[in-house]
Structure formats: C-alpha cells, structure tokens
What does this fold into?
Amino acid sequence: MDNKQMLMIPGPTPVPEKVLLAMAKHPIGHRSGEFSKIIGELTENLKWLHQTQNDVLMLTASGTGAMEAGIINFLSPGDRVLVGNNGKFGDRWAKVSKAYGLTVEEIKAKWGKALDPEEFRAKLAADSDKSIKAVIVTHSETSTGVLNDLAAINTAVKEHGEALIIVDAVTSLGAVSLPVDEWGLDVVGSGSQKGYMIPPGLAFVSVSAKAWKAYESAKMPRFYLDLKKYKKATDENSSPFTPPVNLMYGLQASLQMMQAEGLDNIFARHQRHTQATRAAMKAMNLPLFAPDEAASPAITAVAPVTVDAEKIRGAMRKQFDIALAGGQDHLKGKIFRIGHLGFVCDRDILSCAGALESVLLGLGNSDATPGAGIAAAAQVFAGK
Amino acid sequence: MDNKQMLMIPGPTPVPEKVLLAMAKHPIGHRSGEFSKIIGELTENLKWLHQTQNDVLMLTASGTGAMEAGIINFLSPGDRVLVGNNGKFGDRWAKVSKAYGLTVEEIKAKWGKALDPEEFRAKLAADSDKSIKAVIVTHSETSTGVLNDLAAINTAVKEHGEALIIVDAVTSLGAVSLPVDEWGLDVVGSGSQKGYMIPPGLAFVSVSAKAWKAYESAKMPRFYLDLKKYKKATDENSSPFTPPVNLMYGLQASLQMMQAEGLDNIFARHQRHTQATRAAMKAMNLPLFAPDEAASPAITAVAPVTVDAEKIRGAMRKQFDIALAGGQDHLKGKIFRIGHLGFVCDRDILSCAGALESVLLGLGNSDATPGAGIAAAAQVFAGK
It folds into this structure.
C-alpha cells in the first residue's frame, strides 16, 4: 500500500514524526551563535548516551566512515592489530585495516556464532612485548544478529594494558548498555540511522584520553577524517567542515526523546523486543540464526528451513507492507533479518509476528499452530 | 524576528519548501528496488547538471570530503601537483595534498585576486618530462568571491596532455556553466548545500575515463573515500555504504526544480544577481573585494572602509533578519560576503540591498545617496 511501509530492517530504522518535522526546518548558518548552542547541546546529550566524559565527535559520514576514522587516527602503518571477524562488518574492519597497511590478525568465528573472548585473551596474554596496538571488535554484528561479548573481550584488552580497544557500536549503541567510561572503551563508532532514530548521514566517534595519546604518534594520512580537527572544533561548539545541519536538527529532537524515555527504559524495551521476537520465531518453528546467549538487541536473524527467506521477505513486503532485511553475501536467500532497533514499540513486534504467521501459512510451509507466534510474543509482553 | 531568517551566506543556501518537505518523508530501505530507482534518477540528473557522460558519484560527506576523494584516488605519494591557492579553499587543497605526501607546488595569488593562468601555463610548458600529475584548481573561491579562469587554466593543462585537472566546483556548479565534457574536466567536486539547494551532508565527484585510468596505478590508502567502490555501486543504482536517504529525497526534488528552470535560465539568474549585487554595492560606495572580471556568480565579497564589516553583519542580522557571511582567517572583520547562490530570486537581492542601505545609514557611515543602491540593482533587473 502506498506510503504505508513499516521498516523492520537494521537501518535506516523508523524515524519519529517529531524528528522528520525537525529536519524539515530551514537550515541556519553553521557558524552562527544559534547553531553553536545546538552543537553544545548535542555534544552533552551524546556523552549522556555514551555514558562517558570522553569526547564524542560528529562526522558527516556513514558508520563505516566513523569506524575508519576510529582506526586511522590512532595507529600507524605496520602496527599489529587484532580484528574480531564473525560477520560482514567485522570483515569490513579487517579490510579497512589492511587498506591502511596495518598488520592484521583476525580472530574469527562462523557467521551466526559469537567471537570467543578466550581467543583474544590468549593472543593478548602471549604478547609480552606489547606489539598489539589495538583490538577492533564489532559489538552487535548487524549481518547475523550476534552480540559479541564485548565486556569479556575488553577485560582481556585491559589485562594487556597497552592495546586500544576500538568498538563498532553501530547497532548496539542505544539498544544495550555500553558504559564507555566504566569499561574504558577507547574508541566507539556509531551511525545515525540506528538506535539514534534519525535518517542516515551522521556518524559518531567517542575518543578516550588514551586514544588521544596514541594520536600524537600515529602516522596515517588523513584530512577529512582527521579527528583532532573535530575535537578542536567540538571544544568550541563548532565543526571543522560544514555539518549536516538538518540531520542535526533531527538528532536534537531524537536525543531529547531518548532522554525523556531514559537509558534504562530504552535498554529494557530493546531487550523485551528481542525476547518477544525470538519467542515468536521459536513458536513458529523458525530457526534462529544466533544463539540465545549471543542475541543482538537490535536484529534477529532467522534461517527458515523449508522456504526461501527471500520469498518470505517478498510476501511480508507485498501483503503487509513490512520491510525486512535479507541475508548478506553467502547468507543471501538463507536468512532474513528482523530489525527491532530504535523507534520500535511493542505493537510493532506483534504486527511483525502476526504478519509472519500469515505469510508462512500462505506459502504453505508452516507446521506451527496458527497463533502460536503471536501468543509467544504476547506472553513476553505480559511479563509471563 | 523568530523563524524569519533569510540566508545570504555561501552555504547552507536557502532551501525550497518542496525540498524541505521531501526530506521530511519517512526513509525507505536503501537496498530496496524503490530506492534503486531514485539513485538511478539522481545519477542521470546529476550528469545533466554536470553536462557530462562521466560518472557522477554521491558521497555522504562535506565538500571537503569530496575534494579529498578527488585527490587521493588518482595520485600516489610523491606525485607532483600544482595547486592554485588564492583563498581559504585553494589553501585547503594544498593542505590535503601535503597530508597525503604529494609534492605540492602552489601557484598563488593574493586573496581577492584571480589566479593567473599564465603561471600554470609556464609551469606546465616547462614540464617536459611530464612529472606533473595533476593540477588542482578552485573554480569559485568561496572565501573571497573570486571566480578563477578555469577555462584558461584548463587549456594549459590540456596542452600539457598528461596532467589531470581536479576542480573544486563547490560554489560554481549550478551557478555558472561548467561543461565538464566539453572542457574535459577530469575530477569535479561539489557539495549539496550550495547550488543544489539542499541542506549540507551530500557531496559529489565526477570522474573522467582518464582519471579512472590513473586510479589503476594510484597508491594512497583509502576505504570510505575509495571512489571505485562508489562507481561499482552507482553502476548498479546502489551505494557502497548507507547513503543519506532523506537528503537524497531532497536532491530528487531540487534536481527536478532545476530541470524545470533549465540550465541557461539558472546561469542567467546567477549572473543577473551578481551584476545587481555589484551595481548596488558600487552605488553605495562599498568597495568590492573581487574585480569585475573575476566576480564569482555565487558570492560577492565587500570590503567596507569606514565601518567594521562585523558591525554591518550584526545589524543586518538583528534588524533585517538577513544572515551574511563574515571574512575568514585574516579577512575577519575586513569583509562581509553576500551569498546569492542557489534558491535566490531577484526580490532577495533587492531586499538585501535595501537592508544594507538602511544599516549603513543607521551606522552613520554612508556617504551615498539614499536609495542609490536599490536603484542600481533595480536597473539591472529592468535590463537597463
């Protein structure tokens, strides 16, 4: 139905009307005092969301741009880095690292499985001459719906003492608690079209004092992604290059909404949606791609056995105006992914579960009791 | 007055209501067939605006990001480049080039003066072993309101035969004819918040076949700004990284408006506004910072003698709700800049001239006949 689409993909995520209308305001000059105040407010609220006193910098870029900045500002060609790779994004950070001449050691897990913190610990413990300069980890692996055990990996990094930890929090920030200061996370990258509830185009990097120290001796060519330029400007409530004014209007509205809801409530909501979605899938006999203990709070990947995932996606879209994400790379046609990140309410999960049940019935491939999926989700919402 | 501000800065430029409302639509999935169609339409219309069959690629970045991409994709560390530097942006491209280890020779002119094409010709003619790999030129120098003679500089580059020409068209594209194919411009960078009439956040790079050939042997580290990734995706009506969906909705609306107006009409309008603005300033005895023969079609810089430029800016803002730009770097307080780029109609120029006359009277620093400025602008509009 025209104009009726419901986004349940891991990004862009649904955008509140308040944010859309804020973005439709006429831009003002980005060097004006008025806009300076907005940058100041955004920076404070971004720190709140990151649970940090570190710098949080805003870039006009996608999440990949933020992660690249997070890598190239603090390392030099030849530096040894450990990169966790259990999906498309972990794989991407390994590629970025190689493009800049880093010595990359990948710690891999099968797509759909979590990284093993013990492998990080072993590598780091064996590094007696402290040649490992950074550990790069994807927190929520968007391609598979796996949440890696960042706390455990980070503990191993902290035991090493020297290496920086660089985190892709693109689909975890704003969905699950990421206490940047408490954990001592050095660099955290994220993007606007995710938990932030605004359209794509803005990216964020938080930077610790330890990372800034590494910056001083880091030698990689950069200009647009040179984070020191952003820090200098941000300290003056400004930006080094023309910022995306209207997206920042949207961010202002969305961060105010997030503050009104409160971090704990936001995390509880994402947890509830994850549980309800997973319960519904199980009740429909649809295999979950990621294990319960490593379930992303942002995306649930489902691996249907008897029917092509793309057929399900097509029918969801055509009949119920719900956009789901497909599998990426070798998972294309094998999984579909339900995004429940950002501006998603309990009703949306019920809609999705109900639509899926109907689609499976329609495709003649459901051996589940009709209504079982919705019932399972409803039970989660009823607190049973 | 609240909500009544009129932007006459060189970016962000005024945004049509149609564009603002288009941007307030809910995003759709950037990997959907529906969005693919939009990318296809945008790409075609961008080629029309660039008067080219070359690739025109869209990046989530500021204009600086586009220019950096335009430099680092086609050159290798140590390569010799000529960089025209007669303002803040020319200076910036020299800095970017140095950050990436290029051997930079700057051809300079005083801020407010145009680059001398003869200096380029001499350097290029003397380069018998063809060691100059690229010439980097800012077409309209936003910081000073100077339009460099790109056609003449380009002729010298073409006589050289080997060097690429890389053009900063950030405030010239959409304001003055830039026939990319006719002139054989290899790389042209631009940004959304200028002639495109949309808010900041999108940047554009056009790339010639000759530049792609240079790409094959170019060796600089890059990933997010790797233009081959953008070409590959654009060829499939897609994007390598999540694009700024809502800004692209806005771009769709603005390019449709531009096509309805027609390139010749757009250029004539900018020319008319430039002439009317300059005539008004002269009639008010306000010295123009750039000479007539090198007047930017986007920005007129004015260097008041008897009153501080910042005082004029402040009064224009406070009393008439018109935002003008100040001078940058050493020109701060010495000049103010009137942006007449993008979504500007004849009425806006009259408003600005009238307000300026009133402000100068109020500051007690005008020796001009009251009404002379408006009259001079009106004469231009009357075709006299």
